[in-house]
Design goal:
- The complex is a heterodimer of chains A (about 500) and B (about 375).
- Chain A has about 500 residues and is α/β, with parallel strands linked by helices.
- Chain A is about 30% helix and about 15% strand.
- Chain A has 15 helices and 23 strands.
- In chain A, strand 20, helix 11 and strand 21 (about 400-405) form a beta-alpha-beta unit.
- In chain A, helix 8 packs across helix 10 and helix 11 (about 390-400) packs across helix 14 (about 445-465).
- Chain B is an alpha+beta fold and about 375 residues long.
- Chain B has a single domain (about 10-370), classed as Aminohydrolase, N-terminal nucleophile (Ntn) domain (Glutamine Phosphoribosylpyrophosphate, subunit 1, domain 1), CATH 3.60.20.
- Chain B contains ten helices and 18 strands.
- In chain B, the strands form four sheets. In chain B, strands 8-3-10-1-16-15-17 form a seven-stranded antiparallel sheet.
- The chains are: A alpha/beta (about 500), B alpha+beta (about 375).
- Chains A and B meet through strand 9 of A and helix 5 and helix 9 of B.
- The complex binds iron/sulfur cluster (2 copies).
- One iron/sulfur cluster (SF4) binds near residues 99, 416, 418, 419 and 428 of chain A.
């Protein structure tokens, strides 16, 4: 489509021929077929997606990629993007497909929240000298503990605690299915999760057998297509997640094209080689909250009540009531996925227009569960739109037990957020199954970079805790008193449960 | 009169207990807290005393503060249908009272500050009518009433609501407050005291320490940096945190953990100042299971930030610090007496010849209990 389209190129690739030494590295590296070599490198601008692979690997730094700054007649109503989208649809008659999360200019509330710090009356704590505790447990907790006195006069726990999953750092890798991403991505994620004491999430495509030894660091997902779900899979995990919705495309199923289903993926997903893997929009056995409860308990039966069960929903208007229902239906963890969460492929109209910001959804869910006195009964995981340790700290202060990073994890492995994941041509070996591209991501390197990111964020989180004068993550979790809003209207502040900056305690 | 702003504060605390239940008058505790004059700034002081109403020990003694007589009338109107008032009377006070004895050596600068402008101070000895406790215990009922009065009756504040105990507090230096309330005329087996150094001026008597609910009393030096989550943790259990001070969360947390969840004082202290994970990991099996479960389940109750706290209740007194001991506390024993104070000097001032003096480790509670058999 793109090559024959009348649309002007989005980017311009400029080669500095004075510097170029004709090594052809860019030609080999470009997985989108944009670079040709005749007697010198000739870029096909229309094919460039700005993934920056060539720019990164050109030994002479001879390549620059710039936006094609076409002049459009000014029109506040008709942005160039809208015009281009209409032209595309007029050419193809199709739904516009996109990858990655919502790129639109909706307010990012994280950037309107500020964190407190201690001065004089309560000392800040130096994380280099004093212990700083990030250990977090996911799972259903009782409201209270009971004890019995034993014959020898010592007390012992009488309350049986349901299974808990321990995290050493409150960051989990987001659900990205094998098929949507390469096996090397899964390898990198699982190795990093094991090294850093956290979890990766298989997404809906099953778990490759090679990764079974990492069971303790894996959340296995059960989605509407039930790909790769069998009893051994469910038990090869720290936690099981039922995926109801995804932030980038609430209410929409998924589609892995047959070309990507090779031998390994076919085995892992339990579908024939080359067949499309289509996940229906709803689970066809879940048409109500009672049905969800049945599936939760079916999974608990299958895993001997040894693993917490999470239910993941996208942040939609009624998210608080839905989350409360999910907890009452038996879920031990609720994962809320905001509308900035990434995706391998989604219809643009859904990605860009459906859902609500995760900040508001999280605040509403945490408050709702507290109002109903069931906050202890489930952990809350906040996904979709966490970009930095600052976002993480704010999410925890709003009430999250842990946060999820998907896009940030991919960026750590090389992703440049070019949004072409659905093409299968990812130049960084991430969202692709082409063997020559997959090879570009070395799991040793990928996992080391991911662990570095988690280490860096933990250190930063400890600095934040120290400046708040607390030495344990429990004292930040849900402590909205330590947040202030700037530039937010009073209704938003009220929904977030946060006071405006300038107001004291 | 009630301040609408939050006031962080520094402070001094002191506590005296006779484990054999011997009652002594309030002069010793006044002398002890007076020595730490410089740790307060005259904007708040107070005392809690246990065993002071032996002849009415089966009645709830409400120490009330009213902005004016109209507030008192509103409150009595409220009491009328909810309690059987056996006796009510003005709190005995000595208006303009001031502690005359020089201890700090600094009076030249700061001097005697007679207590002026007190609110209307009244005490009520009350019974809970039987028909009110069909569905809740009488203690639960009293907690609900205290919450309601403090949050809905304008100008009325419950300073304490326990049996055979009471809080005596106000704006001023603690030793002057003690004289104002004539504490020399009360006898108690536990006395705790507090001198306050708030960093701005509330001028509200209810804001002074101790904070009391039922027979719990808290005097607290420090600031609870985890106040935000502690408050949100308590709210679903029906506690109304109206006082805009972090100290009340400590009283309510003890009420929740010990009275309602039936944890022992030791376990409750482990929740509020929990051991570090590194230490938990090294514990023997049973202890580790318990400590882990306490942190998993009661994370919202963990107190963080600098504090030293003395908790009083009818059977004992508990002193403890934050997990890294950012505020001072010294303890001592002499015969049946247990002492706790921000400074050793404040103990030596009243009992120079001690059997034992020690500084408790961070996060480790020191627990004083009435001997068994002592009523
Ligand atoms: S990688 Fe750089 S130096 Fe090599 S051919 Fe391409 S532009 Fe020239
Ligand atoms: S995963 Fe690959 S294709 Fe997708 S945005 Fe990142 S770099 Fe582009």
């Amino acid at each position: 489509m793109a090559a024959t389209s009348e649309l002007p190129p989005e980017f311009i690739v400029k080669i500095d021929y004075d510097r170029c030494r004709r090594c052809k590295r860019c030609v080999m590296n470009c997985s989108f077929g944009c670079m040709h070599f005749t007697d010198r490198v000739v870029p096909e601008h229309k094919l460039c997606v700005a993934c920056q692979r060539c720019v990164t690997y050109c030994p002479e730094h001879a390549i620059t990629v710039t936006k094609n700054e076409l002049a459009y007649k000014e029109n506040a109503n008709w942005s160039p993007e809208l015009r281009k989208n209409i032209l595309k649809q007029a050419e193809t008659g199709g739904i516009l497909l996109v990858g990655m999360g919502n790129p639109r200019d909706y307010p990012i509330l994280w950037d309107h929240l500020l964190i407190d710090a201690c001065q004089v009356t309560n000392p800040s704590i130096d994380p280099l000298r004093e212990p700083m505790e990030l250990r977090t447990f996911l799972g259903r907790k009782p409201d209270r503990l009971e004890f019995v006195e034993r014959d020898d006069g010592e007390i012992d726990l009488a309350t049986e605690i349901e299974p808990q999953v321990r995290l050493d750092v409150p960051v989990i890798f987001g659900a990205m299915s094998y098929g949507a991403v390469s096996l090397n991505v899964h390898r990198s994620l699982v190795m990093a999760a094991a090294r850093s004491g956290t979890l990766m999430n298989t997404g809906e495509g099953g778990l490759h057998r090679e990764l079974y030894p990492y069971a303790g660091n894996v959340i296995v997902q059960v989605a509407s297509g039930r790909f790769g779900v069998h009893s051994e899979y469910l038990n090869t995990s720290a936690m099981v997640e039922i995926k109801i919705g995804q932030g980038a495309k609430p209410g929409i199923g998924g589609h892995l094209p047959g070309e990507k289903v090779d031998e390994d993926i076919s085995k892992t997903r339990m579908i024939p080689v080359g067949s499309d893997a289509i996940s229906p929009a709803p689970h066809h056995d879940i048409y109500s909250i009672e049905d969800l409860s049945q599936l939760i308990y079916a999974i608990k039966e299958a895993t001997d009540y040894e693993k917490p069960v999470s239910v993941k929903i996208s942040a939609v208007h009624n998210v608080a009531a839905i989350a409360s229902g999910i907890v009452r239906a038996g879920a031990d963890v609720v994962t809320i996925d905001g509308f900035r969460g990434g995706t391998g492929a989604a219809p643009m109209v859904i990605r860009d227009n459906v859902g609500i910001p995760i900040e508001l959804a999280l605040a509403a869910v945490d408050q709702r569960l507290r109002d109903e006195g069931i906050r202890n009964n489930a952990s809350i995981i906040c996904a979709g739109g966490i970009r930095s340790s600052g976002d993480m700290a704010k999410a925890i202060a709003l009430g999250a037990d842990a946060v999820v990073i998907g896009t940030a994890a991919l960026v750590a492995m090389g992703c440049r957020i070019c949004q072409k994941c659905y093409t299968g041509n990812c130049a960084w070996g991430i969202a692709t199954q082409r063997p020559e591209l997959v090879r570009r991501l070395d799991p040793q390197v990928g996992s080391a970079r991911l662990s570095n990111l988690l280490t860096a964020w933990s250190l930063e989180l400890k600095e934040i805790l120290g400046s708040l004068g607390v030495n344990s993550i429990e004292s930040l979790r849900g402590s909205r008193e330590r947040l202030r809003g700037v530039g937010l209207d009073s209704q938003t502040l009220e929904l977030l449960g946060v006071k405006p900056a300038g107001v004291g305690q | 009169m009630r301040g609408n702003c939050y006031i962080p504060s520094g402070c001094s605390v002191s506590g005296i207990m006779s484990e054999s239940g011997r009652r002594q008058d309030g002069n010793a505790i006044i002398k002890s807290i007076a020595l730490m004059h410089d740790r307060a700034n005259g904007l708040g002081g107070g005392f809690a005393a246990y065993g002071i109403y032996p002849r009415r020990s089966d009645l709830y003694a409400f120490h009330m503060m009213f902005d004016d007589m109209a507030a008192k009338e509103r409150c009595e109107e409220h009491f009328k249908d909810r309690f059987d008032i056996v006796l009510d009377e003005a709190m005995p006070t000595r208006p303009g009272g001031a502690y005359e004895e020089e201890t700090s050596g600094r009076w030249g600068e700061r001097g005697v500050q007679p207590i002026i402008n007190p609110p209307v101070l009244w005490r009520y000895f009350m019974d809970v009518p039987e028909d009110k406790t069909k569905f809740v215990s009488d203690r639960e009922y009293v907690v609900g009433e205290v919450m309601e009065i403090n949050s809905t009756i304008d100008g009325a504040f419950v300073a304490s609501s326990g049996k055979n105990m009471g809080a005596f507090k106000g704006v001023g230096y603690p030793e002057d407050i003690g004289v104002f309330y004539k504490l020399g005329e009360y006898k108690a087996y536990i006395w705790t005291a507090h001198g306050r150094f708030p960093t701005n001026t509330p001028g509200w008597w209810g804001g002074a320490h101790p904070f009391c609910l039922l027979d719990w009393s808290i005097v607290h030096n420090g600031e609870i940096s985890s106040y935000g989550i502690n408050k949100r943790y308590l709210e679903p259990f029906g506690y109304k945190l109206e006082l805009r001070t972090d100290t009340e969360v400590v009283a309510y947390l003890f009420d929740l953990l010990v009275r309602r969840h039936k944890l022992s004082i030791e376990l409750a202290a482990k929740v509020l100042a929990s051991p570090f994970w590194d230490d938990i990991d090294r514990m023997p099996d049973r202890e580790r299971r318990i400590a882990t479960a306490l942190r998993q389940v009661y994370g919202g109750a963990l107190l963080n930030g600098p504090f030293s706290i003395i908790l009083g209740h009818s059977r004992g007194m508990v002193g403890f610090n934050d997990r890294i001991k950012l505020r001072p506390m010294t303890c001592a024993r002499k015969d049946d007496m247990l002492y706790m104070s921000s400074e050793e000097s404040a103990i030596r001032e009243i009992s120079p010849d001690l059997d034992e003096v020690w500084s408790p480790r961070a996060g480790t509670p020191v627990i004083g209990e009435l001997d068994e058999g002592v009523a």
